[in-house]
Each structure stands twice: as C-alpha cells, then as structure tokens.
Amino acid sequence: MSAVPGAAGAAAVAAIRARHRLRWWEPLPWLAAIAVFFTFPNHLAFGTQLLVMVLFALSLDLVLGYAGIVTLGHAAFFGAGAYTVGMLAAHAGWNEPLSGLVAAAVVAGLIGLVSGLVLLRTHGLTLLMLTLCTMALIEEGANMGSAWTGGFDGMPGLSFKAVFGVFAFDPLYFRVQYLYTLAVLLGVFVFVRMLVYSSFGRSLTGIRENLLRMHAVGAPVRRRQVVAYAISAALAGIAGGLFTQTNAYVNLSTLGLDRAAGVLIILILGGYGRLYGAIVGAVVYLMLEHTLARAYPTAWQLGLGITLMAVALFARNGLIGLGDKFARWLARRRA
Amino acid sequence: MSAPLLETRGLARNFGALVVARDIDFRLEPGARHALIGPNGAGKTTFVNLLTGALAPSAGSVLLEGTDVTRLPQAARVKRGIARTFQINQLFRGLPVLQNVAIAVAERRGVGGRMFRPAGLRRDVIDEAMGLLERMKLADEAGRTISELPYGRQRLVELAIALGLGPRVLLLDEPAAGVPSAETHVILDAIDALSPEIGVLIIEHDMDLVFRFAKKITVLVQGAILAEGPPEEIAAHPEVRAVYLGTEAAHG
Amino acid sequence: MDLASILLGGLASGMVLFIVSVGLSVTMGLMGFVNLAHGGFAMLGGYVIVVGMGELGMPFGAALLAGFVLVAALAAVLERLFYARLYAASELDQVLFTIGLVFVMIALITLGIGPETQTLTLPAWLRGQTDLGFMQYRTYSLVIIVFGTALMLALWLGFERTRFGAMIRAAVDNRRMTQSLGIDVGRLFTITFAFGCGLAAIGGGLGAEILGLDPQYPLRYLAYFLIVVAVGGLGRVTGVFFAALLIGLLDFVLKIHFPKGGTMFIYALTLILLLWRPQGIFGRRA
Predict the structure, then answer these.
(1) Which ipTM score applies to this complex?
(2) Which of C97, C226, C261 sits opposite A309 (nearest CB)?
(3) Per CB distance under 8 Å, which residues of A are interface residues toward C?
(4) What is the pLDDT of residue A123?
(5) Which of B83, B84, B98 faces A12 most closely, judged by CB atoms?
(6) Confidence bin at B252 (pLDDT 50/70/90)
(7) C148 and which of A176, B129, C15, C26 could share a cystine (Cβ 3.0–4.6 Å)?
C-alpha cells in the first residue's frame, strides 16, 4: 500500500494535509483592525458595530456557506442573544459582560437546537418559510412582552460592569468596546476556523455539495445539520449580546427581515463558504452604507438592488470569488 | 446452504397504479458475483434503491445477514455494510478527488463528526483514500476538482468511494457506463481484488462485462424476476433471449 | 363589528391576497423558482392602475387592462433576460436575485413617483354601499369577493379543461418528462410567468384600498404572499384560494380583536401547518 505515488498524487496529499495551516496573509486583517484603533480613534463606535456584524456574518457562514442551509431568519438568534443580555442587565442586575455573553450564547444556542431539530426535517421553500416564521414569532414576542423587553421602544440606557472589573466601557470614544469586541471576535473566529477544517467541517461541505451522496456514505446528515445550526445560533447570539453591551441598548432592530436580509447580503457580497468572506463583506458593505445610504437612501437601495442582481447572475462567490478569478487569470498570464 | 448476505422476501413497490417492483424474492450469497440485467425501465435501479433504503417498499422485507433492515434508513444500512454506486455520478463536484474519497473513509472510520482536530492531520484517513485512488489508477488526478475530470474518470471515483466504505455488500449501478472500454478493466480488477466474502451485485447493459464478471445472473422485467441462474443458462433461456438479448443484439 | 361584516371584510382581504398570490404559486410550482420579487410586480401594477385612473382619468376596465398588459410584458422580458438563466441555479442565488430586483423596483417607484401612500379613485359604480337584504356592505369589497371567486373558477377550469392547463399541470408534476414529450417548456414558463405577474398587477391595483399601496408594499406583504403559497401548496389554485381566504380572514379578525401581536398567531399557525404538512394543505408530497 505504500507504493510511492506520482508527483501529482503526492502534491494532492500534501495539499490536503496542509489546508488548515495558517497562511501568511491570515494575521493581516487582525493587524489592520488593531491599527484602526490607533489611526481612527474617532470612528471606533462605527468600528465596533462593524466587528459585531462580522461576527454575525461569520455565524451565518457556518450554516449557509458550509452546511448549505438557506435561512432568512438568522436574526432570530442575534435578537435572542441581544435581548438575553438586555433583560439580564435590566431585570436581574446581571451586567457582567463576559458571563452575559455566555448566557446569550446558551439561550440562542438552545433556541437554535430546538428549532433546528424541528425545522431541518423540511427543505427548500418550506424551510425558508419556517425560518422566517420562527424569526417573526420571536420578533412579535419581543414586541408584545413589553414588561420584559420594552416592547416597541426596546430597552435604552443599559449599563454594564467593566470587563474583568478593570476595563470600563466608555460611551464617548468606544475604546474599550472596540477592543473587547475585537477580542471576542478573534476568539470566535479561531473556534470557527477550527470547526471548518475539522472532519466535521469537511462533512458539512459534503452535505452542501451533495446531500444524497452524504446519505449514501453513511453520514448522520440531520444530526450534523442540527449541530451546525445550533452552534451557528449560539455564535449569532454572542454577536447580539455584544450589540447590546456595546450600544448600551437593545430594540426590535436586532430582529426582523431587515437585519436578517442585511447579514445575508453582507455574507454573499463578501463570499460565502470562505471564512474571510464575512470580514470582506462586512467591511465593504458597511463602509459603503455608512457613507452613501445616509446621504442618498433611495439611490443606495437602487444601487444595492442592481449589485445583488449582478452578483446572483455573474459573481456568485462574491468579492473573494472575484479575487480568486483574478488570481487565476494572473497565474495564466504568467504561465 | 449458508445464510445469504442480502435477501429480499416478497419485496414490492408501487406508485399509485404504477407497479415498479413485484413480489421479488432475491438472494445475494457471500462472495457472490451477481449481475442484474433487464430492459430499460425494468426496475433495476428501483430495486437497488429498495435494497439500500433510498426508497421504502410498499410490501415485503429486506434482510442483511439475517437481520431485518427494512425499517432502517439509508445511512444506517451503509454503516452495516451496504455500499452502492449511482447510475449517474453522485460526487462532491466542487471538491478535489482525494477529498471525495476521504470523506467516505472518514465516515467509515467513525471520525466524520469530530470537531477539534484538523482533518488534514488524520494521516490514516488520507493514506487510505490515496491507496484507493491508486487502485483505481486515479492517483495523478487526486488533487483535481471533480468537475475538471472526464465523465469516465469520475465514474471510477464513484467506485472508489463505495470501496472506501468497506462494504460487505457492493451494489454497482452501471459502473462501466461512460467509462472508455480501454479502462473498464480497472473496474474488474478492483472487484477481483476484493475480499472473497464480499457480495457484489452489478446492474449492467454491457454484456461483455456481465459475462466476464458474473457467476449468477438475475433477469428483471417489469419489476419482476423473469429468470435466474448461471450465465450459460441465461444465455440459452428462450424467454430471456426474446425479451432482452434479442433487442440487445440491435444495440451491439 | 358584527359577524357578517367581519366575514365579508376578511373575505375581501383574502381575495386580494389570492389574486396577487395565485401567480406566485403557479410559477413557483412550475419553475421551482423562489421569486421574492412577486410583490414588486403587484406593486408596479397597482401604480399603473392608480395613476391611470387618477391622473390619466382612464375608465376602470381600461386601467385594469393596462396594468395587466404592461406588467405582464415587463415580466416576460425579465423572465427571458434573467429568470431563465437562474432556473438551474441554487436557491440562494434565486433569493439573492429577486431581493435585488425588488429593491430596484422599490427604489424606482420612490424616485419616480414618491414614497407616499397612493389612493385609488374608484369609479362611481364601485363607490358606496350595496344592499344585500340583511345588511348593507361596501360595494367595492363585494365586487372584489365576486371577482376573486370568478377568477378562481376560471383558473380552475383553465387548468383542468384546457390543453394549456394540462401542459402546465404536467410540467409542475414532472418537468423533465414534459420536456421529453416535445412541449416547449421554455415558452410555457414565459407565458405562465407573465400571466401570473399580470394577475398580481391586478391584485395590487384592486387591493389598493385594502392592503394599501406604497413603495414598501412588496416587502411588507412578502411574508404573507409566501405563507399563502406555502400553506396552499405549490401550483394548486384551489389550495392558494383557501389558504388566502384563511390568512385574510385571520389577519382581519386579529387586527380588530388583537391589534397588538395578532400576527403572532398567523406565524404560529403557519409553523404548525407546515411542520404537519410540509407540502401545504393541498400540495402533493414530492
């Protein structure tokens, strides 16, 4: 069995064995994020929200880009995490940040587990509808339960303890919020990266590429999908919790089609199934939105609509996909 | 007579008024080299779907080594040793060839769901997958994406995946279809190299392949078994000649 | 409000939902295409009809016809240019494209006409009340109920009795086999899609007084259209009819008695229904 394979075969083996290794450019986005802290000290509020959306998009990538589950309701988990942190702080006096995030992850993850077990028995339009309905239910629940959730107005004016008791959130310059969010994001990213390159992650790719084949190789497909869905929900919940903690408020904007469609657009624009698509998409989309949408909202919507149509027709793999094509074109020109 | 490896009793399936499987009693012995032939639309692929659990029967039962597996879903039957290839390739088209087989091997070894260790560090899985590719003469294409391969080579990957599942029963649905005749020997060599207790059932239209490979042939027509026996008997069987081999001569 | 008024109000709501959604159900069942922009066609038709009757002073029938024809033509062009290229694409790409399309539609209407809610100037014979004997009720709503029922019967007859309808039913059940029978499935798709969008246009115009009409219309009612289609069963005219009436009635009643959070009931009901029967009440299991 150990006959020496030909050069091409050996290269393939080496490639598959090295996939998970850190590439030279991987630390760059994180270094850039730290650089921003020093070079744009007056924009850290926006930067913090951008990091929160990166985390949210990353959670969606796990379930959409890797497991291939199309959902329009992922904001359900973002909102669940956001409101968990908010309600704990407002009603139970529990406003320690890190443990709050853990609570958010647990609540959102449990909702994800239960809804995943129930919903993932369906597929296609039915599944899409059910994810929408689940999110709408949670949104209505938050709207109605105003004693707990503040209803339509949400819960403004929350306050949180300092991180580790030392680093207090500063509502003026967002310095601590930014670094805190960046640290959590980095931790989650490392976790997701590990998942993606593990056998579990590989099997998710298999489920996305050919569901029938995965059944036919004996994989417990539904179990893997539900696990991916629940983990993704927990991570979205952490993002939501961060939203509440860094903004010091929570409201219905954390739920609903706007938020869910927004994160979907971010992920697609960046490139799904590619880990860094969440970062690329969030940076590009949110920066454009921050500058253009405020000034010309209708023109922004028009441009966004045209962009989405073009992406669906010509650039399914987003900016990263275009980058790949460009790199291949360059390599062919050199050859 | 020893217990059969795979057996069906009164297996039947209908879609409303359309009967696709009719009271089928079938036995696959350990070490079998068994071929299933019949005209198009006879229900051969449907029968394989019933055996593997991709399709539930309307009546009857499927037994694997004496145990009734009729209620078991597909994935569970795979774990018990039934592996199949599909008539039309079902591969992970966007992934490299090696990855395709590695996924199957990882599932067989029970590590498909492990979350913490990078898949690339599982040398045993990768080496085994590479070994299978070498047997199928696919080693040089191990790094290429499935969609880059010619159809015939993809067919061999399909077989490699089935072998990677370490089956006790191998169900091959037209394994040679689309494979250039110069390469079909790869398929036969791979089957020859199999452990003697493994039972193999092939659906095929290529009569050359059937008569080279099979020790027993079952003829299926309109969802029911028309005849069953060793190749010489089937070749001489008057009804079979009329229904199937007569029209086969026109295709050559 | 007494029972009869509630019933009639809910039926009228449901009828509008039906007229808009029936096209979506047929095209989703036929083409297997997740078209989130369907509400956009309804909105565009609504604007054509409202502007036609209001500013251009067209007679009612002519305005409806104009709405139908213009939107159907636009739909046919879009189908040939874009939708046809995405039939084989993943569900995600279809969702993405149609979200983009509806954004474009909303933006163009906002830029061209403005963000305000539009009101429909009803012709004289539609205004006021009709005497039903046991009560008086708004003529406009009664006409919608009659029209919707007539439309359902006409469509049902069309599907069951005509050759064209048979082709559509065959293609919904098994596209590949229909193609191998020599039927030009591409042309079938275009005609059906255009017709469905034309119906939606009429629904958007007729329903302007009931569902409202403004640029946010397509997104506001997207969930309802999809619910009606999913619950009714893809490609089933009778299914969409009853699902639309059910949702319309429920929504109407809930708005009156539980204005805060009544929609929760609809979403919960849809959840339970779809879990119990994923193919919809009338749908066929794949």
Answers:
(1) 0.89
(2) C97
(3) 64, 70, 72, 118-119, 121-122, 124-126, 128-130, 132-134, 136-137, 140-141, 143-144, 257, 261, 264-265, 268, 272, 298-299, 301-302, 304-313, 316
(4) 85
(5) B98
(6) very low
(7) C15
